[in-house]
Write a structure and sequence with these properties.
single chain; 133 residues; 2 helices; 10 strands; globular
């Protein structure tokens, strides 16, 4: 799969502002998420995957086998995360202790990847398109 090891940068987004506002976060956190413009990379090492997210605040690295849940933090909140990899598709489920669930679906191609984001308190879907650097 030629997308492994490539860094992809955010190129465009749809419904992201609606997505963020639907979470009912304080204004400061809402503003921070709206300004969030990460780059991302996926790597495969045997049966383990490494997901790296680059932002102006540094980088966040997740290592996991497909289908295995692990504990982590997301914006300083405890969460359980599971990545499921199926060919060129990755689904990430983030479960917050407060009962909130965030779902991120990614489909990779040679020249881009498309990310669809939803959560358990909103019926909509935000879409982001990333292109290789």
């Amino acid at each position: 799969m030629s997308f492994y090891g490539k860094v992809f940068a955010l190129e465009s987004q749809e419904n992201y502002e609606e997505f963020v506002k639907s979470m009912g976060l304080p204004e400061e956190k809402t503003k921070s998420l709206l300004e969030y413009k990460p780059s991302q990379k996926i790597e495969k090492n045997g049966d383990e995957y490494t997901f790296t997210v680059y932002s102006k605040n540094g980088e966040k690295v997740y290592k996991s086998k497909s289908g295995e849940e692990f504990a982590d933090t997301f914006k300083d909140l405890p969460v359980k995360i599971i990545f499921t990899v199926d060919g060129n598709k990755v689904t990430q489920i983030i479960k917050f202790d407060i009962g909130f669930t965030l779902t991120i679906k990614k489909e990779y191609f040679d020249d881009k990847f498309i990310e669809e984001i939803s959560h358990s308190l909103w019926d909509g879907v935000a879409r982001k398109v990333y292109k290789p650097l």
